[in-house]
Amino acid sequence: MGLLLPAPCRTNSERLTTPGNVECSSCSSAEKIAFRYSRQILVLTNRQAAAAMAQSVPPGDINTQPGSKIVFNAPYDDKHTYHIKITNAGGRRIGWAIKTTNMKRLGVDPPCGVLDPKENVLMAVSCDSFAYGQEDTNNDRITIEWTNTPDGAAKQFRREWFQGDGMVRRKNLPIEYNP
């Protein structure tokens, strides 16, 4: 179903002043305002449709190096840092964010960002010192979440991209502690 817009008159007295504005000596002020208003609604509707379209297309894949797990080696009395490369393998710009199951022990930098298609980022995962064997490490992992950004959005991360109806994908990277 199409959107019906009031059309301005098409008399010889009409002239286009700026995009979307029509001056016509035979049109009433109300007709001119109605036409301008309908054009603004159409522009707003197109922006909303673009944002909805970005959210309705499933996000593409990401690649990580390492691909399946992160290994920290003993001793654990010093802080360790492991670097992970995240690559947007899809064809659309994505926003990504990192979650961890143990915020006391594990840190990430940067914790979120935006990647264009085929672009990558190097992220640091750090493990603070702890008493190995005295703390539960079985469920430690980081989770990378990503979603498409709305069309036309600035390349600045926005948390609300993850809070709407759009699809959010996840990749879990378990943490292995090597004694």
Structure description:
Strands 4-11-10-6-8 form a five-stranded mixed beta sheet, with no helix packed on it. A four-stranded antiparallel beta sheet has the order 3-5-9-7, with no helix packed on it. It has one helix spanning 29-56; strands spanning 14-18, 21-24, 62-65, 70-73, 80-88, 94-100, 106-109, 112-115, 120-127, 141-148, 169-178. It is 16% helix and 37% strand. It folds into two domains: 14-56; 62-178, Immunoglobulin-like (Sandwich). The protein is α+β, with helices and mostly antiparallel strands and 179 residues long. A hairpin with a 2-residue loop joins strand 1 and strand 2 (21-24).
How many β-strand runs? 11
Note the total helix count: 1
SSE series: EEHEEEEEEEEE
**Strand line-up across the major sheet:** 4-11-10-6-8
General form: elongated
- CATH secondary-structure class of the largest domain: Mainly Beta
Indicate the proportion of strand residues: 35-45%
Task: Give the count of structural domains.
Answer: 2
| Average pLDDT rating | 82
Fourth CATH level, the homologous superfamily of the largest domain: Immunoglobulins
Named CATH architecture of the largest domain: Sandwich
CATH fold topology of the largest domain: Immunoglobulin-like
Sheet bearing the most strands, described?
Answer: 5 strands, mixed
Straight-line N-to-C gap = 65 Å
Instruction: Please compute the radius of gyration using only Cα atoms.
Output: 26 Å
Helical/strand content category? alpha+beta
